[in-house]
Amino acid sequence: MDFQEKLLFTAFLILAVATNGTQADAMVTGTVFCDQCKDGQMSLFDFPVNGAKVTLTCADSNGQIKMSREETTNWFGSYAMRLDGTPDLNGCSARVSGSGQGSMGCGEAAGPPQNLRLVFRMFDMEMYTVDPLLAQPAKPMNQCSGSSNPVPSPPTQHESPPPSHLPPFAGLPPLPPLPPMPPLPPVIFADASACPYQKWTMPEYKCYWRGVNPETKVAVAFGMAAARRYGTDMTLWNGLHGRGDPYRTLLREGVTALLNSYNSLQFSYHPLGVVQHMNWALMGSTRTVLLTALRFMRSNSGAGNVTCKFTSCE
């Protein structure tokens, strides 16, 4: 157990004792991600799912269900189940059991269930974690590699195609040319790329929006603290146009950092890191808001040595 985990568990213990005395209970926590490639594993395209339904089930030695609980994930894709007392959670597992409002269409199917892991026990209190659960859309996204219908390879120079018994199509007019194929969505940049907010508002770069879209609500992308500050109707597109106020500047640069993090593997922030720093800033002082906005702005500008890798989508 590293220092951060020890600090988390100590804080959890102090909070539990302060609020509930020495009452025994158990806590089960975890996160649900959208498995956009439907390959049953975490990938670069996956993101936390809000509104996913998670079911905890416990079976006895005969396979009979002895306990079942259901919880819904929050804006960060996380869930927490509190169980009174210290029940026997051996043989318990959690799985994605459905989708709800806010799940962004990622709940048609689900990945495998995951078993509980005990990470903390003290004073009759227990804390369990579950490895990431996967929710899946109806179809895999286009950027995913692999295909269930592979195209047969053409005949080699030593092979000849099967003979045709059809007469030649003499005298028929030539076929009209096929319409041009639409451009493929861009792949995630393997090297560093950082683009300022002005680039994200240009229509020729609209194909680089991934994970979220311009109409995604700020409250959905960043959580409860953002909902209290910016309301529930503010969209990411509106947030990109904020200026003249520390909190609107923070939102503009935070949205930009989130978009950059979804598009570059080497961007300064991971998507969850952007959300985390946004919430820390919104719960802090105005000085913290300004400092966080400046750090986001520095990363979004490339800090002097990283350029924007965008090319026109059209």
Condensed summary:
With 314 residues, the protein is α+β, with helices and mostly antiparallel strands. Helices cover 26% and strands 20% of the residues.
CATH class of the largest domain: Mainly Beta
Characterize the largest beta sheet: strand count, sense, and whether it forms a barrel: 10 strands, mixed
Our count of helices gives 8
Which sequence of SSEs, written as H and E, runs from N to C? HEEEEEEEEEEHHHHHHH
CATH third-tier fold name of the largest domain: Immunoglobulin-like
- Assign the CATH architecture of the largest domain: Sandwich
Q: Helicity, in percent? A: 25-40%
How large is the radius of gyration? 25 Å
Dominant shape = globular
The mean pLDDT is 78
Please provide a written account of the structure:
By secondary structure, the chain is an alpha+beta fold. The protein folds into 2 domains: 23-136, Sandwich (Immunoglobulin-like), CATH 2.60.40; 197-304, no CATH class. Helices cover 26% and strands 20% of the residues. It contains 8 helices and 10 strands. The protein has helices spanning 3-20, 197-200, 218-222, 224-230, 236-239, 246-263, 271-282, 286-300, and strands at residues 25-34, 47-48, 52-59, 65-72, 78-84, 92-99, 109-110, 114-122, 125-130, 133-136. Strands 1, 2, 3, 4, 5, 6, 7, 8, 9 and 10 form a 10-stranded mixed β-sheet that branches. A hairpin with a 2-residue loop joins β8 (114-122) and β9. α6 packs parallel to α8 (286-300). The radius of gyration is 25 Å and the shape is globular. Residues 14-22 and 147-151 have low confidence and may be disordered.
